Amino acid sequence: MNKYKSTRAQVHKSIRPQVILTCALLACALVLLSGCEEFAKEDDFLDVKVKPEQTRAVDTLKLTAKADTNDGIDINKPAEKEITLSIEQCRAMTLKNNLDLKVQLIEPTIAAKQVSEEEAKFESSFFSNLTYGNINQPSVIVDQAQKYKSQTADLGVQVPLQTGGTVKFDLADNRTNITGNIFDQNGKSVGNYSEVIYTPTTTFSISQPLLRGAGKRVNTYSIRVLEYQRHITDAMTKLEVIRVLANADRGYWRLYAARKELEVRQQEYELAQAQLEQTRRMVLLGEKAAVEETRSEAGVAERLDGIIKAKKELGDRQRELKQIMNEAGLGIDSPTVVVPMTEPDPVRYEIDKERLTKSAVENRMEMLEVELQLAQDSSTVDYYKNQMLPLVAMDYTYNMNGIGAARSNAYDMMFDRTSESYTVGMNLIMPLGNEAAKNRLLEAQYRKRQRLFTKENRRIQIETEVLGAIEQLEANWQSILAGRQNSILAGRLYEAEKRQFVVGLRTATDVLDAQAKFANAQSTEISALTEYQIAQVDLAYATGTLLGAAKVRWEPIVPNVNGTDAR
Predict the structure, then answer these.
(1) Residue 364 binned pLDDT confidence (cut-offs 50, 70, 90)
(2) CATH topology classification for 82-116+223-375+440-566
(3) Within 10 A of 257 (CB to CB), how many other CB atoms are there?
(4) pTM (2 decimals)?
(5) CB-based contacts of 178: which residues, under 8 Å, 6+ apart?
(6) What are the pLDDT digits (tens) for 120-130?
């Protein structure tokens, strides 16, 4: 008994330093991995550094007053550079360069990659493990302790199945070196021994769910949803193409109207200037009172203000169209003046309301989006119905084992299949109540029902938009006829007032008023013409189409790391 206590004390004495060293190493590792180190107060770890004054201080706008505030206004200043564009050229530049389109055209590429990423969940995987172990097997008697040194190399392939199961093939090669003491009958150590054992193992296993999570449709649910989402992205991209090109058409006609409005106001100014010169001659001849000259000068000044406003409107419309086209060398700050070359071609159309509304419901991408979302909802309902089933899985494992003092002998034994085994198992998990699955299914069913209401509401909205666009088109046609008649009569009235002024029956104010009405009638006619063109654009947009003879086909942009894009 005393000998046993002495031996145990020796064991404890020899182990205590190793235990202390091991605990110290573990403590150091925990401190390093705990992440308790504070971040540096400096922002060296940030890629973008922001100074506090950039976000917390608000600067003031500093403007410099001009030395001469009475500079004259040159209304006839020629443009430094002009470029004439047809509406087809405008559309082509927009389709090629518009930034909103470039942003949207990358979305289909991203959506396609998301589908490919999800499809990759069925890819097979190769795995490998290398393990080295050194084990000292303790014993109450020190001399009886054994040491094990093992090296294990494990290679295998794992194949996920579209049915929800998993197939696995595994080959493990293990080499174990055992060392210890040899004792005689009296318990005395008479020597040491060392033994090497090779134990290779080949394992084939398959696990397959039978109810919940079983079947190709259930396991491809996520891929199917992303595929629907990809089609939705394509639909939204087409809608963006239509929207941007429709905006380009509208911007083109608004620029046309702004240029024509400026021409009208310049003509009005020139007529007022001619009226002033005529009045001055008549005042010098004593045919008119001096007050008529003052009235004519006031009319000229008033027309000058109209030119200034028309120029400002023209500048706004040019920047709007330049931003849409985004053509190189034709930026919003470019001095180049864009001159629309295409003239309005007002033609009255026979409109079949029933055919157009039906075509709009079929063509509009918003309706296709809802249809695809409903398909998503149906797949989701089916998926959650499957998730309500119990989890039943069948497992099968087949092993071939070998053992021997030499690796070749161990592998011969393994491949001779003299030591093989297999196991078959069945697992069952059934939630008591299954409330989570029930509520997920109900949520999916409610969402599908909600989408059906959305579909009907969207159909009504589209039909309303089409009917409104048809009525607007007809109203704008009537405005063209009325504007043209008003412009002709206003011109005749102006000419009559001029003749009456010469014979002394009218004042300069009467002539200027008639001239202003004539200019406003011309502006109204121009506005009616351009609004009729825009109404055609709006009707095409409401039906999910575009104006023009040429069809438009878009392709997604595939960005690369070099910054250039391929379509």
Answers:
(1) very high
(2) Outer membrane efflux proteins (OEP) (1.20.1600)
(3) 24
(4) 0.80
(5) 146, 147, 148, 194, 195, 196, 197
(6) 999 999 999 99
